From TrEMBL:
Protein name: DUF7144 domain-containing protein
Family annotation (InterPro entries): DUF7144
Transmembrane regions: 20-48, 68-87, 92-112, 118-137
Pfam families membership: DUF7144
Annotated keywords: Membrane, Transmembrane, Transmembrane helix
DUF7144 domain mapped to chain residues: 25-138
Length: 142
């Protein structure tokens, strides 16, 4: 077997893992753009009509649903724009902004569990993947 054949078959090959991470960065950009759009729509729903969401009485974090709507709208717009910047191969600032915004969006979705439990859990998992993908970039590929 040649040297190149053995390195591509090795499951611990760093180049193979790095290819996954670089593809993950592109996928993270797509996910940021899509989840940003969905957050914008979620924010519009919260602002326009409070009775779209089901409120839980005994939840620790009590916010006005219109306030949640504005938070989702603004954060969704920022997440969408950073996702587009990542798809256009923006420099390191876009990855850094993506990690920061995905972290904030993860927290916001965790706090909105009472209103949309399943959707919030799905978004928490997606944002965790986005953070991983944006933090796992090969040096020199900024």
């Amino acid at each position: 077997m040649s040297q190149s054949a053995t390195t591509t078959q090795n499951p611990r090959n760093p180049d193979r893992h790095q290819g996954l991470a670089n593809g993950g960065t592109t996928f993270a950009g797509v996910l940021l753009a899509v989840t940003g759009l969905l957050s914008i729509f979620r924010g519009i729903m919260g602002i326009a009509k409070n009775d779209v969401f089901v409120a839980t009485k005994d939840y620790v974090f009590r916010w006005d649903l219109t306030g949640w709507g504005w938070m989702h709208l603004i954060l969704g717009l920022l997440v969408f724009l950073v996702g587009l910047a990542l798809l256009k191969a923006a420099p390191a600032w876009a990855r850094t902004a993506g990690v920061v915004l995905a972290s904030l969006a993860l927290i916001v979705n965790f706090l909105s569990l009472p209103w949309h439990p399943l959707w919030s859990l799905i978004l928490v998992a997606l944002y965790a993947f986005i953070i991983w993908a944006l933090c796992t970039v090969k040096r020199g590929h900024t």
